[in-house]
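Incident log, support desk, overnight shift.

02:14 A customer reports that sequence design results differ from what the structure should imply. Their input is reproduced verbatim below. On-call engineer (initials T.W.) acknowledged and began investigating.
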């Protein structure tokens, strides 16, 4: 992949890289598939089983992602000092227990909205450490940048397919077993991920031990922040991604209930609409490597972000047609958006992994997770507020139009210089 940053020597791939990546890929594919059941199940569980309002239901994504705000940066410093595979195992086990508890309490009739919020919040804390360890672990398997990008693309492809197929499968499951059954399926998927991680043979090479002297956490966090926010290309990519995710999360938080209450679709058709829309992700994933090699990472990021924003803005425009035409229009706009996002993500992840020194991988990743996933929490909170004040349609419109702001944020610094340099040449 053509990346406009200074090259650095990379270690060779791990001897068991192919086998261990296969286990990691399989386990995460199952877990990601199960996660998509929650896209439909959590808001429907809150509204139909617990009699929560749509504004309250919008707070559940907030509970899942708000831990990234207080924990995102410390997690990077902590994970850089721990075995990353072990961290992933513990975090997946915590999530399995949390959603298993949601299912058990719901079946027993003891689930309340505050308790559901608390369990989702506990799962969110585990997600913070898992995601930071997850992206920092893969470079220990693949030292070669092209193999690393291929691995990121395959993981992104699994996420894309889960977004396309998961909601489609969740609709019939919810119709047959209810939202509670979908939550149970997600808990089982985390169990499968725990098993796959336990079977991985590769162990990371020991990192140089650093004494945990007074103030080590603050200094480690500061070192990661300085690198990520001082990098000429990573900085605009992070600012762009934060802006984009903040407003996109308003759309995604509101979408399920928007389709039910405004468009008037049943759970089965909501699953079809959400899943069919995600069909654009694998197209973007598969195109990302070719785009990066032909255009270079900065220009590929600009093109992908522009396509994604175009699709998001089209969603409320076409959805306002109402009825079947509105549902079809939402799918069309979302497919375009997903193509752009599917191309953007593998390029940006590989760029971050190849730009950061190995000792800073988790900390640089934690800066990205802190900003982007923290923005999901804030966007969900904004969606809840806008929904309470002006309704679901207003939340979708505000989120879609706000994503436009990510484009000028991206076209700055090293990205702008690289794009203009290639254009002139």
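02:41 Re-run completed on a clean worker. Output:
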């Amino acid at each position: 992949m053509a990346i406009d940053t200074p090259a650095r020597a990379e270690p060779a791939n791990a001897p068991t890289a192919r086998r261990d990546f296969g286990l990691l890929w399989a386990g995460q594919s199952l877990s990601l598939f199960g996660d998509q059941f929650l896209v439909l199940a959590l808001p429907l569980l809150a509204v139909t089983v617990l009699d929560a309002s749509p504004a309250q239901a919008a707070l559940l994504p907030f509970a899942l992602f708000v831990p990234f705000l207080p924990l995102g940066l410390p997690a990077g410093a902590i994970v850089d000092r721990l075995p990353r595979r072990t961290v992933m195992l513990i975090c997946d086990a915590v999530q399995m227990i949390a959603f298993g508890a949601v299912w058990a309490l719901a079946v027993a009739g003891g689930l309340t909205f505050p308790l559901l919020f608390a369990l989702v919040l506990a799962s969110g804390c585990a997600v913070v450490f898992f995601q930071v360890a997850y992206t920092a672990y893969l470079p220990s398997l693949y030292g070669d940048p092209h193999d690393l990008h291929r691995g990121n693309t395959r993981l992104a492809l699994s996420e894309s397919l889960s977004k396309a197929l998961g909601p489609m499968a969740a609709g019939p499951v919810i119709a047959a077993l209810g939202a509670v059954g979908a939550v149970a399926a997600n808990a089982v998927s985390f169990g499968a991920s725990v098993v796959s991680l336990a079977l991985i043979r590769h162990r990371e090479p020991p990192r140089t031990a650093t004494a945990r002297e007074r103030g080590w956490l603050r200094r480690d966090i500061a070192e990661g922040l300085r690198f990520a926010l001082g990098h000429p290309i990573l900085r605009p990519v992070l600012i762009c991604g934060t802006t984009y995710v903040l407003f996109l999360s308003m759309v995604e938080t509101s979408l399920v209930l928007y389709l039910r209450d405004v468009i008037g679709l049943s759970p089965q058709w909501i699953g079809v609409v959400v899943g069919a829309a995600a069909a654009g992700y694998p197209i973007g994933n598969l195109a990302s490597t070719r785009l990066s090699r032909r255009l270079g990472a900065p220009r590929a990021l600009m093109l992908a972000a522009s396509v994604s924003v175009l699709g998001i803005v089209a969603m409320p425009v076409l959805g306002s047609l109402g009825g079947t035409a509105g549902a079809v229009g939402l799918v069309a706009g979302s497919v375009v958006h997903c193509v752009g996002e599917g191309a953007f993500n593998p390029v940006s992840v590989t760029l971050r992994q190849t730009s950061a020194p190995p000792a800073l991988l988790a900390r640089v990743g934690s800066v990205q997770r802190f900003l982007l996933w923290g923005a999901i929490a804030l966007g969900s909170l904004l969606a809840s507020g806008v929904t309470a004040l002006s309704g679901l349609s207003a939340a979708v419109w505000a989120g879609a139009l706000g994503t436009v702001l990510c484009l000028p944020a991206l076209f700055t610094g090293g990205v702008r210089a690289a794009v203009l340099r290639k254009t002139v040449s």
